[in-house]
Specification:
heterodimer; A: 325 residues; alpha+beta; Alpha-Beta Plaits; 2 domains; 4 strands; B: 220 residues; Rossmann fold; four-stranded antiparallel beta sheet; 10 strands; globular; binds adenosine-5'-triphosphate; binds magnesium ion
Chain lengths: 325, 220
């Protein structure tokens, strides 16, 4: 009789509308979603151990990336700082130098030219060198006239600069044409190395996050071994048993991402004063830029993805080993 | 309902815990399983619940051949079987109510329905007043009855019990057995392993006797 009864019940279940099933499916997910969050909140210290490690591991590459990005913003302003110094030959008349200066200033590739005459240079030198009037002993001024040229932004690419340099060197009045850009080139290639280094660090730390989450979930599974066994014995599917562990990994990841964001934001806040001081000293209006909403979003998504993957790996490996016997 | 055809179970160690066991339990039947310690009682129950698979022969439960059952289908078979263990197997960090609700939670039964059926099950085992307590605060007999409530809450067509009265005093044991009898009267097939010969002979049901893995007696 009970069997007949239960058959009837089963038929009812199969007749339940797809809509009803979908709704109850989502309700079950939301229940587990909130339940796992509750579990994490109920043992904040233990959860913090895992989430803080994830947070730090995410904050490191993200923070380095941010520093690099800010540095790039600063050096982008320096790009135009590539300047060309033309040391002119001796004994060129004042008018010729003036003409050269206006010719160069008229060039499309040039933003501005400043002319430092040998006399002006000498004055400056006297003022700042400390040799003062002892330089008066010199019969004649050994310094050359110099044109300091600042190329326009649109012509500041290395090739264009090189072309400009070649042009200047051909000019008969120019003794030496010197480009002040080597150090920027070096800086850029160092930044390329740093950028690659950050990617490598990020990849390694991502693996570390996977391992940390995986290990935490593995311990979690071991602690709940009894519960898992009982659930399996009373007919829980693997999907059902797996679900809370996956959501736990999901939460660890998201919380870790949020912690990373907080760490970086707080660090920027701490640094901002001294950076403002520094840029003030250099007469720069540079202010450090934070992660912003997109940064927060990327950190959360990355944390979520890593947390979910880490728990997926642990669940796949360890849940199978727990079978009633 | 439960059918064994020359079922043999050999554990890795080599010797046979069950050899060539054949019997048939009809729907609505109540059957006891007895035998000395190590005779293979638990092994037989494990075959029914698909915790182990027969090495040879066939075990058919509720029309399903256990030996051929896909791993993914095992949960759905187990939902048709209420299992009661000697050592209760309750979750100590959950209330009595939550323990009994477990089989319905895993099936996604609606909240309202869960409350109603859990209370009905607790009422049947006489523990309605203790639904908010934790299992550790209950006596052995009460814990056993929580386990029974959990096994019957889904109204399964089959109930398996392994030494359900193992460490209970005679009066309590009798009470538990009578509880099973009540479920049987509404048509549930019941298979109970027990070595309390005195008690089970008094109950006057079919008894399967195992000895060293062989079925040596089948009758009242
Ligand atoms: N997982 C296992 N691996 C190997 N051998 C096992 C396993 N489970 C049981 N056995 C062996 O199978 C035989 C039957 O064991 P089983 O547990 O079925 O006996 P039982 O009749 O339930 O005994 P008891 O009354 O003591 O519970 C025993 O000799 C036991 O050692
Ligand atoms: Mg046993």
């Amino acid at each position: 009789m009970a069997e007949v009864h239960s058959k009837k019940k089963n038929n009812q279940i199969t007749h339940t509308s797809i809509k009803g099933k979908t709704i109850s499916y989502f309700i079950r997910h939301i229940q587990v979603f909130l339940f796992t969050l509750g579990t994490i909140c109920r043992s904040p210290f233990a959860s913090l151990m895992t989430t803080a490690v994830i947070g730090i591991a995410l904050a490191l590459p993200a923070g380095l990336h941010l520093i690099l990005k800010n540095f790039e913003a600063v050096t982008a302003n320096w790009d135009g700082a590539a300047q060309i110094s033309l040391f002119l030959k001796k004994d060129i008349s004042e008018e010729k130098v003036q003409k050269l200066t206006t010719d160069i200033a008229a060039m499309d590739e040039i933003e501005n030219v400043s002319y430092i005459s040998a006399d002006m240079a000498m004055e400056e030198f006297k003022k700042h060198s400390g040799f003062g009037s002892s330089l008066d002993a010199l019969d004649n001024n050994p310094l050359p006239d110099v044109l300091v040229i600042k190329p326009a932004i649109h012509s500041s690419s290395p090739e264009k600069i090189q072309r400009l340099m070649a042009k200047f060197r051909k000019n008969g009045m120019v003794d030496i044409a010197q480009l002040d850009m080597e150090w920027i080139k070096r800086l850029y290639s160092i930044m390329d190395v740093v950028r690659d280094g950050i990617w490598i660090a990020a990849a390694l730390l991502a693996v570390a996050v996977l391992l940390v989450v995986g290990n935490t979930i593995r311990l979690d599974i071991q602690n709940k071994k009894e519960e898992i066994l009982i659930n399996k014995l009373i007919g829980a599917t693997d999907v059902f048993i797996r679900r809370p562990f996956l959501y736990t990994g999901f939460w660890y990841g998201i919380i870790g991402g949020a912690i990373a964001f907080t760490l970086i934001t707080v660090s920027i806040f701490i640094l901002s004063d001294s950076i403002n001081n520094l840029s003030g000293l250099y007469g720069s209006s540079f202010t450090i830029s934070g992660l912003g909403i997109s940064g927060l979003f990327i950190l959360l998504i990355t944390g979520l993805g890593l947390g979910l993957s880490g728990s997926w790996i642990a669940v796949g490996r360890h849940l199978k080993q727990i079978e009633p016997s | 309902m439960i059918q064994f055809d020359n079922a043999t179970k050999r554990y890795n160690e080599g010797y046979e815990a069950l050899s060539q066991v054949s019997f048939h339990i009809n729907p609505g039947e109540m059957v006891f399983l007895t035998g000395h310690s190590g005779a293979g009682k638990s092994t037989l129950l494990k075959l029914v619940a698909c915790i182990e698979k027969p090495t040879r022969g066939q075990v058919i439960v509720n029309g399903v051949n256990i030996g051929r059952l896909w791993k993914r289908s095992i949960p759905y078979l187990r939902r048709k079987i209420g299992i009661i263990f000697q050592n209760h197997q309750l979750l100590n960090d959950r209330t009595v109510f939550d323990n009994v609700a477990l089989p319905m939670i895993i099936q996604g039964v609606s909240h309202k329905e869960v409350g109603r059926r859990v209370r009905a099950a607790l009422d049947k085992v006489g523990l309605l007043s203790k639904e908010k307590l934790y299992p550790i605060t209950l006596s052995g007999g009460e814990q056993q009855r929580v386990g029974i409530a959990r096994a019957i809450v889904n109204k399964p067509p089959i109930i398996l019990a392994d030494e359900p009265t193992g460490n209970l005093d005679p009066d309590l044991s009798k009470e538990i057995m009578e509880l099973f009898q009540i479920f049987n009267q509404v048509g549930v097939s019941i298979l109970i392993a027990s070595h309390d010969i005195d008690l089970i002979t008094k109950m006057n049901h079919r008894i399967l006797t195992l000895e060293a893995g062989k079925l040596i007696r089948d009758g009242k």
